[in-house]
Amino acid sequence: MTNLREAAMTSKAWPFEEARRLLKRYDKAPPEKGHVLFETGYGPSGLPHMGTFGEVLRTTMIRRAFEVISDIPTRLICFSDDMDGMRKVPGNVPQQELLAESLQMPLTAVPDPFGTHESFGAHNNAMLRRFLDTFGFEYEFYSATDFYKTGQFDEVLLRACEKYDDIMKVMLKSLREERQQTYSIFLPIHPETGRVLYVPIKHVDAKEGTVTFDDEQGREWTLPVTGGQVKLQWKPDFGARWAALGVDFEMYGKDHSTNTPIYDRICEILGGKKPEHFTYELFLDDKGEKISKSKGNGLSIDEWLTYASTESLSYFMYQKPKTAKRLFFDVIPRAMDEYHQQLRAYPDQDVDKQAANPVWHIHEGHVPESKMVVPFSMLLNLASVSGAEDKGTLWGFIKRYAPEAGPETHPDLDAAAGYAVRYYNDFVKPEKTYRAPTELEREALTELREGLANWQGPADAEELQSLVFACGRERFDPLRDWFKALYEVLLGASQGPRFGGFIALYGIEETVALIDKGLAGELQAE
């Protein structure tokens, strides 16, 4: 009998593959620091988006997979680069003029345009933590501002002074010639204005641990690199953070992949061991453009959770992380249904297949039972034909179809009914377009109507599906044209549910009445 650890050591599920790669890092000896450190980064220049959430979720999945195959303790740090200067005003936040006055200020020194926190950076950090807490992540939150100002970064900053020339050589190779003339790995914080300065550094004193520069007015200043008076440019900061914390694993988007050798080399120059990496493909909006914190395009976490469960979002994130994902509202129903399909399959799978099942990774091995006796896509169609304004309407049909089900005993189905009503009213209803049937379709619909009107047995989904097939089999080639006609004439959509199951749920008499309205052109008129 294979146990989970044995299955995990050969599983092709990507979290276990990454966990095994990470374990090789310590095949000779365990880490001196006593744990394996996972890190995710967040730039709070805008509101958190799906990419940020996805990084933490996927990293957590690898962390839990690692804990199956190793007894080495683990930690996860979510690091916010909130000392970064605000380079542009995000387009999706209020009080644009207020923010424009704070350009180049550290994000933790920019006023909060929402008026709820001490700074814009603090507001965005709080939003990130709220999102992460909603999903029950176990993590430690680190603020770059605190990290710099409390001296936790001092040792690596002083080392960066000592290794300044070596780090500059790495950076200059990656820059255009005109950028090389003014570039420095250090960004001083102006003692008077508090702004992050992008100015040439005239002198770095490794012995004293200071930098000398001229500000925009030509005045010369000398500042210690410690105590939060100077920060590192973002690429050196990446590598320096790895060295300072002893990071073992970090994942990031494809747009960072060309910088990986830079991050790694700087980490090594500063005395650290480069971590293991995982590069994921980017998330795209409905137009195929990369989602952005400053634009606010694509689907937000709150929007997803308005129309579907947290688990369905986790399932969407699990799938093919190295493939670009179109992140828009139309991906939600499939994610909901596929997640529950995997839940239903899990109990009957052997341990090898369970280790490869996404729900193991979503629930960290504690997989619940699915109570979704009606698929989400079917609930959407039911909401459509019934014109449901609340989930109570759907429960009237569900109880007839599954008398044993109820909101208390089937909470996931109850929640899904509420999601379906909201999704239908916001996305399906505005796009519904009915059409009249062709003569051939009218003939088939009439036969289906008569078959249902004369139905004597129970509303069995499979037997009803056989009737639907029989009405179309001799008339349509390919047969899918028959089902397409059913959806377009009766449901006002180009695709829909398994129709026998829909009839069983909606009701035989109700479906007869629906066909009558479709044949009479009343659905088009409505």
Put the structure in a nutshell:
It contains 25 helices and twelve strands. By secondary structure, it is of the alpha/beta class.
Structure report:
The structure is a single chain. The protein has 526 residues and is α/β, with parallel strands linked by helices. The protein contains 25 helices and twelve strands. It has a five-stranded parallel β-sheet with strand order 3-2-1-9-10. The chain has a three-stranded antiparallel β-sheet with strand order 5-6-7, with no helix packed on it. It has a two-stranded antiparallel ribbon with strand order 4-8.
Shape: elongated
Oligomer: single chain
Number of domains: 3
Number of strands: 12
CATH class of the largest domain: Alpha Beta
Secondary structure topology:
Elements: H1 4-8, H2 14-23, E1 36-42, H3 50-69, E2 74-80, H4 96-100, H5 120-134, E3 140-143, H6 144-149, H7 154-162, H8 164-172, H9 177-180, E4 186-188, E5 201-205, E6 210-214, E7 220-224, E8 230-232, H10 234-245, E9 249-253, H11 260-269, E10 276-280, E11 283-284, H12 301-307, H13 310-318, E12 325-326, H14 332-345, H15 351-356, H16 358-362, H17 376-386, H18 391-401, H19 411-428, H20 439-453, H21 461-473, H22 480-491, H23 499-506, H24 508-520, H25 522-525
Parallel strand pairs: 1-2, 1-9, 2-3, 9-10, 11-12
Antiparallel strand pairs: 4-8, 5-6, 6-7
Helix pairs in contact: 2-3, 7-10, 8-11, 10-11, 13-14, 17-19, 18-19, 20-21, 20-24, 21-23
